[in-house]
Write a structure and sequence with these properties.
The complex is a heterodimer of chains A (258) and B (242). Chain A is mainly α and 258 residues long. The relative contact order of chain A is 0.14. In chain B, the strands form two sheets. A six-stranded mixed β-sheet of chain B has the order 5-6-7-3-8-9, with helices on both faces. A three-stranded antiparallel β-sheet of chain B has the order 2-1-4, covered by helices on one side. In chain B, strand 8 and strand 9 form a beta hairpin. The two termini of chain B are 32 Å apart. In chain B, helix 4 packs across helix 5. Chain B has a domain of 76 residues: Orthogonal Bundle (Helicase, Ruva Protein, domain 3), CATH 1.10.8. The chains are: A mainly alpha (258), B alpha/beta (242). Chains A and B meet through helix 2, helix 5 and helix 12 of A and helix 1 and helix 3 of B.
């Protein structure tokens, strides 16, 4: 594990370059460019908020902000893991020709998504100000669960990218799984509407914890509970450990399967 | 003399599956049927040789003899099935120029991306940026996406990036076949410069006259086995007559 972080530091420039490639390509030739990162979640939030505050009413204080937090977290997970899963296959030609540290590709994809998330933060602050939510120093502690989540996504990305090399079905299977996950995670509904007997499903979902901690900072303007953060950290460490071991074990055979 | 590369009883096997099994369903179905037998293909079989500093090793052999597999193992792309490879120093692989280019990015962006992939530092690339552009003769195309490049421009840029570094070992695989005559000569001059500076070079080519002109030692591969290794004149003579 230690060597992983050392190597990541050593190759930081390459990661920066790969990340900036992702972002440049995403917005090349669009007039509003990076602004889309900000506008996209905002528009989706407005649409969803409109639907849910008229059709189905949930008893949630400051629903737009609640919704936006959920969306930001879920989009980050969705985007980073999906792209990381494909990263090895997509760079197959390169991996077959040159020796490159292979995990840099899933890593840079996850970091790209995280940078994307940072671009959406102004939208979040805008909604905080507009809706008059509590805005304190503690609001900024959302960085802590976000950091753990970055590690978690990296771990999941490493696992998925390994699996996807051997089984291309993963790509399709995972998309189905993601849509299931989007309903199993309290993005647009409050946790309280989940019936008692199903609450285990929530507790088995890592995203639930990251989302909850994130909301405690942003929506409630307080430092997330310590034991919640402990759970977030443990999940992150365990996932990245498994991902790293799995990836390390199989990476030498990747070139034979892509 | 110091050995820069030591290859010891190296073997490389591939699983040639009739059809690649890469879906879970198929995998399980085949597992149940007991159909997961692979056809084993030996690309390299018990290959041993060593290269000294300043050597210019040429590798010859027919198609499918295992030349490219050997180079890829030396470059670290493949992990050998058995045997060991010891490489002392940095390797610059010129296996396929421009393999790492992203067509959407400009020449400038690709120089940095590709350079970093090849393991150069950012500072080094900044310092040598003009040299790369100059050598590739692409002064007017710095900010053009490489998808709009001709194949010659593509190859020139790739060669320029790969050779700007002063590696200990340079691996060249047939890349000189691209580009026009002038560029070809320029490449040969640069390789000659590198030889003078003490770079060890491994060259694969079907152009036996080029091998004869440049190399000092030869490795002759046949069906994954070493047919002969050593003195240039002797092997060249035999190879031409075979």
């Amino acid at each position: 594990m230690d060597s992983l972080f050392k190597e990541l530091y050593k190759y930081r420039y390459l990661i920066v370059e790969l990340v900036s490639r992702d972002i440049k390509k995403k917005y090349r030739r669009s007039i509003l460019g990076v602004l889309w990162s900000l506008l996209n979640p905002l528009f989706i939030m407005i649409i969803t908020a409109m639907i849910f505050s008229h059709l189905f009413r949930f008893d949630i204080e400051n629903y737009p902000l609640y919704l936006l937090c959920g969306q930001i977290i879920f989009t980050f997970y969705n985007e980073s893991t999906r792209f990381a899963m494909l990263s090895i296959i997509e760079n197959g030609i390169l991996l077959k020709k040159v020796y490159v540290l292979k995990y840099l590709f899933p890593t840079s994809r996850v970091v790209s998504s995280c940078v994307n998330l940072l671009f959406t933060l102004p939208a979040l602050f805008l909604i905080i100000v507009v809706t008059g939510a509590k805005f304190t120093f503690a609001t900024f502690t959302f960085i802590i669960p976000l950091f753990f989540m970055l590690m978690f996504c990296l771990g999941v990305g490493l696992i998925l990218s390994t699996l996807a090399v051997y089984f291309r079905d993963m790509v399709h299977l995972y998309n189905v799984f993601l849509s299931l996950l989007s309903y199993a995670t309290p993005i647009f509904y409050p946790e309280s509407i989940v019936p008692e007997q199903y609450s285990l499903i929530l507790k088995l979902n890592p995203l639930y914890f990251y989302m909850k901690a994130f909301r405690q900072s942003v929506c409630e303007g307080r430092i997330p509970e310590a034991d919640l953060l402990m759970i977030c950290a443990s999940i992150a460490v365990v996932t990245i450990f498994i991902g790293w071991r799995l990836f390390k074990r199989y990476q030498n055979n990747f070139v034979l399967y892509i | 003399m110091e050995n820069v590369i030591e290859v010891d009883h190296l073997s490389m096997h591939f699983n040639l599956m009739e059809e690649k099994v890469d879906s879970i369903k198929e995998y399980i179905v085949r597992l149940i049927k007991g159909n997961l037998l692979y056809t084993d293909f030996t690309a390299l079989d018990d290959v041993s040789f060593s290269v000294q500093k300043n050597d210019l090793l040429g590798i010859v052999g027919l198609n499918g003899a295992g030349k490219s597999t050997l180079l890829k193992i030396l470059a670290g792309v493949f992990t050998p099935t058995s045997g060991t490879v010891k490489v002392n120093g940095t390797v610059a692989p010129l296996i396929e120029v421009g393999a790492g280019f992203d067509p959407e990015l400009t020449a400038k962006e690709n120089i940095f991306l590709n350079g970093l992939i090849l393991g150069y530092s950012k500072k080094f690339l900044k310092d040598h940026f003009d040299e790369i552009i100059d050598f590739a003769e692409l002064e007017n195309f710095v900010n053009v996406p490489v998808k709009n490049f001709s194949s010659g421009m593509y190859a020139r840029l790739g060669f320029a990036i790969a050779t700007v570094v002063k590696p200990d070992i340079l691996i060249v695989d047939e890349v000189l076949a691209v580009g026009d005559f002038q560029f070809y000569q320029k490449c040969e001059r640069r390789i000659a410069d590198m030889i003078k500076n003490g770079v060890t070079i491994i060259l694969v080519s079907h152009d036996i006259s080029m091998i004869e002109r440049l190399c000092t030692k030869l490795l002759w591969l046949e069906h994954g086995k070493v047919r002969d290794f050593g003195d240039k004149e002797r092997i060249c003579e035999q190879y031409k007559n075979s």
